[in-house]
Design goal:
Number of helices: 0
Largest sheet: 7 strands, antiparallel
Radius of gyration: 16 Å
CATH topology of the largest domain: Jelly Rolls
CATH architecture of the largest domain: Sandwich
Order of helices and strands: EEEEEEEEEEEEEEEEE
Structural class: mainly beta
Helix content: under 10%
Length: 184
């Protein structure tokens, strides 16, 4: 299977019901009504609650802005554009507080399987498992992924994803990228 590419700016933003921001849904797999996992870029425009997603593993990374504080289960997590992505239970009530204004954020939600997200600054080589879905977010600069001897070049603000029939090693190159893997 080849890589699927989605430029975030080609997706119109959908306003949140509570008026606190917008979401650009990049990919929903396999279908919107019964998704196993989804990836999106959201803009948080004001303080407020996150939507609750029972039975969902959530990953969250700040892409731009001064950052947010997420409060859940009695704990507060301060996240900035250079912070590692945060994994949390989507069923737990979560409150967001902006640090200095609106932020843009990347979200990975996994209902079936197990997700992982990490930042890519420079070059990174990883082993990937067969049967996984993998994705690379380029960030504000171009990025690339080399797998099975083929290199994928990504322009800025673009997501590429694919399923892997067999495992192997992937080499990533990005200035402000995100790497995701969903094990089935």
């Amino acid at each position: 299977m080849s890589w699927h590419r989605i430029a975030v700016d080609s997706i119109p933003p959908t306003p949140w019901r509570n008026g606190g921001g917008t979401t650009r849904e990049l990919v929903v797999f396999p279908v919107r009504e019964h998704w196993h996992w989804r990836m999106s870029v959201a803009t948080i425009a004001q303080d407020g609650p996150f939507s609750v997603f029972e039975g969902v593993e959530r990953w969250f990374a700040v892409l731009s802005g001064d950052g947010v504080r997420l409060s859940m289960g009695g704990n507060t997590h301060a996240l900035r554009p250079d912070s590692p992505p945060l994994s949390f239970d989507g069923g737990v009530a979560t409150q967001s507080e902006l640090v200095g204004g609106p932020t843009e954020d990347f979200n990975l939600m996994v209902r079936q399987g197990r997700g992982h997200m990490e930042r890519v600054h420079g070059s990174l080589a990883l082993a990937v498992a067969s049967g996984s879905a993998v994705a690379l977010w380029s960030g504000e600069h171009a990025a690339s992924a080399t797998f099975e001897g083929a290199t994928l070049e990504l322009p800025p603000r673009t997501l590429a994803w694919r399923h892997l029939d067999m495992g192997g090693r992937v080499t990533l190159q990005a200035t402000q990228g995100l790497w995701m893997e969903i094990a089935q």
